[in-house]
Amino acid sequence: MPFYNAGSYCEAALESISRQSFADFEAILVNGGSTDGSPEVAQSWTRRNARFRVIHHENNQNVACARNTGLEAALSPFVAQADADDINHLDRFHLQMEAAAKFPEVGIMGADLALDGGRVLRFPAQSPAIRIRALSGTAIPLPAAFFNRTVLGEARYNPALAYCEDLDFWLRHCFRVPTMNLPRALVHYRQPPQSLSNSLSPHRLEAERFVMQQRKETLGVPLDIEAGIATHLGHRTFQVGSSRIAAHILQLYQQSDRLKLAPPATLRREALYLTKRMWRYYGRQNLASAALKLLQTTGGLLINISRPHHLTRVTSLLIFLCRCLKTAWPFSSSRA
């Protein structure tokens, strides 16, 4: 577990690890050069519990370097990632070890995340959908990540990335080894104001561009870098027009279909997920009109655009995606 100035969040995170129902573990805490009281909190746990140890970085490098230090220090083939501002479910280690025994071919495992207010952030369960999700955003939640290094090997985070080290890691390894997410919330995900996830610094945008470049190389097609970043970050980033967002989503799933990265039904579900996310930031009507423009510029041959009322109750973008993937529209217009 890396930590840097974790403040009051650190104690609860460490408590949740100490109370795990699966007791045979070593907790490796990596201090990334903290200047607050969190190193003392972590050190106190080494005195209270022999399973805890702390490794100190003299200077604040970045979280990827801290994660790598923990991976290098770990002796077990099974490694659970944890963050200093999150609370782990009592049975997290037990359930992930149980799943690792049942699915020994899986190299990377995650789980759903519990959010404040009783909400649950869900992630795709199986490898094909996880690969597709990795092309647009977070495929496996890092606070719930679990590695079987017998399968994964001695993988490391990119030490040059101060942000998005998880997105880079999933892109490099989700296409190489089987993956899965357990359909149960095993970590309570908390975001303090100083969390890196909340940052939109130039370094964050530089890391996002680096990851988008990797996605271009994975798909083998030129992608709209800025539209891809906007698709991932949504309202937190600079505004990119809905036409560019629609075009980016279309290209992403068309090329995934050409490369046979996942079955058409999986691509359809992931297209639905991503487009629903974009509704929140750009509005249903904006995306629908943008997709209509795309249809017109490509000849308008995929659906009958001469009857606009057919588009009022369904998202034209999703219709276009489903047609491109040669799959049926999965919902009736009354449910769209």
Write the layout of secondary structure elements.
Elements (H helix, E strand, L loop, with lengths): L1 E2 L5 H10 L8 E5 L6 H11 L3 E5 L6 H11 L4 E3 L6 E2 L3 H11 L5 E7 L5 E2 L5 H8 L11 E3 H4 L12 H9 L5 E10 L13 H18 L5 H9 L8 H17 L5 H19 L1 H14 L18 H9 L12
Parallel strand pairs: 1-2, 2-3, 6-9
Antiparallel strand pairs: 4-8, 5-9, 6-7, 6-8
Helix pairs in contact: 7-8, 8-9, 9-10, 10-11, 10-12, 10-13, 11-12, 11-13
Question: Would you give an account of this structure?
Answer:
Helix content is 45%, strand content 12%. The chain is of the alpha/beta class. The protein has two domains: 2-196, Spore Coat Polysaccharide Biosynthesis Protein SpsA, Chain A; 220-335, no CATH class. The strands form two sheets. Strands 4, 5, 6, 7, 8 and 9 form a six-stranded mixed sheet that branches. Helix 8 (202-219) crosses helix 9, helix 10 (242-258) packs across helix 12 (284-297) and helix 11 runs antiparallel to helix 13. The chain is globular, with a radius of gyration of 21 Å. It starts with a strand and ends in a 12-residue tail after the last helix.
> What structural category do the secondary elements indicate?
alpha/beta
Q: What is the CATH topology assignment of the largest domain?
A: Spore Coat Polysaccharide Biosynthesis Protein SpsA, Chain A
CATH superfamily of the largest domain: Spore Coat Polysaccharide Biosynthesis Protein SpsA, Chain A
Residue stretches low in confidence (pLDDT < 50, at least 5 long) are 295-315, 325-336
- Give the averaged pLDDT, no decimals: 83
Total of helices: 13
Total individual domains: 2
How much strand? 5-15%
CATH architecture of the largest domain: Alpha-Beta Complex
Overall shape: it is: globular
Q: Please give the CATH class of the largest domain.
A: Alpha Beta
Helix content: 40-55%
Largest sheet: 6 strands, mixed
Number of DSSP strand runs: 9
What sequence of helices (H) and strands (E) makes up the elements?
Answer: EHEHEHEEHEEHEHHEHHHHHH
Question: What Rg, in angstroms, do the CA atoms define?
Answer: 21 Å
For the record, give the distance between the C-alpha atoms at the N and C termini, rounded to a whole number: 43 Å
